[in-house]
């Protein structure tokens, strides 16, 4: 276990470094002079010079990279050029929306997918399986921002049950939660469709394994074999998808946040990109990539907990 | 099941492709001409799917929009196939070697970047437009195909018929081309259809936020974005492009599933 | 060998002939099974008494395993059953699945062929044995835990050596099969069904598992239905024997008598094939062909952590070997002894870490530097008749692949003639060249593999377990074919097998390998009749063999 952990930690560190280097190169080196890029073509030379000084662009590239990385590691993400506020503070504000949204969507998608996948696998080829497969086929093809629109049309504009968009802040938790219900549902349904299909096919693969026949020879019914032996063995592909989905939900909510006018992390990045605020872009993208890599690392650890063969691997 | 998948998927996919091709030579209305008095009309015999806020014929818009969607998705998938498959084959031919390590680690790295964020970043840095959308989507297709190819090629390399080919003195690259690749083609066709459908979804997302094909060319995503403000007033303007996306993605997915069962029931493409 | 094994336990059988036993513990009457419309079992009738071993044998596809699964009620979906299956007074074939669940594991136990995949990889072995007890609510949890540990100890896995907290992947194949047996017998069922329980195991492990099963039957009074394709396994262990062919039982009777004097033509053919030894034409070997000295081959084991020292697994450690032109050599050893690693090194498929290999005076090198002219002297035939061919190619294209090694390969009619000749040499028709490979059976495929190896007229062929996956009658035919090749092609070979009974008639010289080294070599008669090295003796002692024919 110790060896496995060390190995994973080492590769975690390497991934983080490589990712930061790629982001730095894409954002700061590829567009040429970041200061002129941020200010646009018609900027006055003295404004550009002032920004260059502020960004420390006169330093050699490798020192700038180390400076930036060091800043990130100590929590200093720089000052947004357009908003003139610390990026760290902005990120913290936005996470207050994005994190609950992602967590809520993930929980909802798991709650839907788990029983759906189990029922489909247990009743393979029969009516419940057909129903689940048909519904998930639709769910996968559904663009989530269109689903969002339909949900708004029905629940906000027609029925007036829920707000159509905006976020009132957490001072009124009930209103805040109500504002997140439709976006979380729009995010969760297509993800639930994917998860249910992965779970079903993983379970069917495992039901074909010989140890399931051994379990049946012990006197377990099909259902018992599915729950006792199938589910735990199907956990690895399911965890993989869950890990992928969390990272997707954290940043991939950009468009959904756009639909519902939610001040989340995705919307922050999108605005920063269109406003050419490279300081915000660079730091937030790095944070997101870090989050993905760390989630992948945690997924790997969860594999080891789920599968003793990985724990004992030498 | 498989029959239903093909019977439904094939006509749907053909319909989308046919509409896109037809729009090159004929559309029921002009998608660039504005006709404000006729705006936001519900479906009628003159406008089968109604009109948008500029009075343009929605059916014509959807047909032309299919062109942008399909072009972006097809070229992006072509890019992924062209670069990803050879990389995957090469990596598998010397599994555990330095090239394999490099390809796999680069793959992991690319997968760590949230694809939509990077696509937005690329199109924003390079300027919005269909070409940059293709690039942004294509970049994420390369590791997908590399990984799928490598994953399916590895067990083939352990088969005895590969040993026999090596005993016949054939070089690894020749074995990859002659013995490995032909056995992967069904899998690649299936994965290809899935990636095209994902590409259509991604293109719709990008053009929804204004980073896809640029006006005056209509695109499904932008049609949705423009319809959003008047969804209460004229829901059909939002329903039409969304349904177009849904049906084309559904058609391709069904076609992919049907083909998989038809070509080889043991194949299981990655879907993430 | 007319002595029944039952005589070891005189108390159990005294004064009773099998036919006058009390009501059988298990009895099948006119059992027929159809699967997807085609008949897989037809009118099977069998009886199995407590404390008795009934062997069910036949070639693959004869319906042995289907019979076992039908008794367990575990037939694949879409199977339709007719006839009676009685377990004591209980009629099984009319029970619903929930009712069968109450019997499986409690009154009926089953052991499967492949121990590597028969256990749940994420559950400890103790928990898996305990599950049998708990699912039937036979004992409270704490006592079930104790019973599970006792049962594991009973099958030879005492807690101080193999604790119940182990996971399956930490156990060897033989140990895993013991766990499967423990799960099957934890509630002392009346009937134990073992479907090819030792086919996936080494000969030594096979003997131990068979001893364990025999003990359980005799001591616990279970009835054992032993399904096996291997008549030698049956001999000396089973009380009675039933021979199946194409879904029917063609002959049944006391095992020793039946083996000594089979009545049915099919049984006779099976026994003759199992005893079959090909006749090698006498040959005087020519000059040296293959020279191997000090060959070492190891590969790195994965590191425990990034800073750990690389540990090496030495698969071949210092092998010296010489094969002369036209000489026929066999290499035997238990699985994992390094036979196949050695073969791959000889074929130039893997780089070696030490020593030299020369073929006809020139070094054999792995990788792209390999000289085609060199490589064409040595070809190979592998074990798996299904994995050896690209499924997308025709037979003609597959056979002619080695032409790639020739500087000026024949084209057009000359190529077709060469393919036709190779096909004829292995007893197939030239017409087969155009057929796709999936149209051929396992035995035909091995012929095609041999044709592919022969087409460029090599000096030597390595047969790596080339007959191990074949049914006994097909195996006899392929062995005869190989013997013929010595006559027609003057071929030298290295015939690699884990099965001692096969190599005796196919070699002038036998090499015995153990743990990466060749520990003994000599003429077959000497190796078989007067083995010197303990490894050879252990192999010979463990290998099951058919008794010599009567008279």
CATH class identity of chain B:
Mainly Alpha
Characterize the largest beta sheet of chain B: strand count, sense, and whether it forms a barrel: none
The low-confidence runs of chain C, each spanning 5 or more residues with pLDDT under 50, are 1-20
Biggest beta sheet attributes of chain C? 6 strands, mixed
Tally of DSSP helical segments of chain B: 9
Radius of gyration of chain C: 26 Å
Percent of sequence in beta strands of chain C: 15-25%
* Helix/strand/pairing category of chain C: alpha/beta
CATH superfamily of chain B: MetI-like
Strand % of chain B is under 5%
Could you give the distance between the termini of chain C?
Answer: 11 Å
From the spread of the alpha carbons, the general shape of chain B counts as elongated
**What assembly state would you assign to the polypeptide chains in this entry?**
heterotrimer
What is the correct CATH architecture of chain B? Orthogonal Bundle
Q: Could you give the order of the helices and strands of chain B?
A: HHHHHHHHH
Class by alpha and beta content of chain B:
mainly alpha
Describe this protein with a few key phrases.
heterotrimer; A: 314 residues; mainly alpha; MetI-like fold; 15 helices; 78% helix; globular; B: 272 residues; elongated; disordered C terminus; dipeptide transmembrane transporter activity (chain A); transport (chain A); transmembrane (chain A)
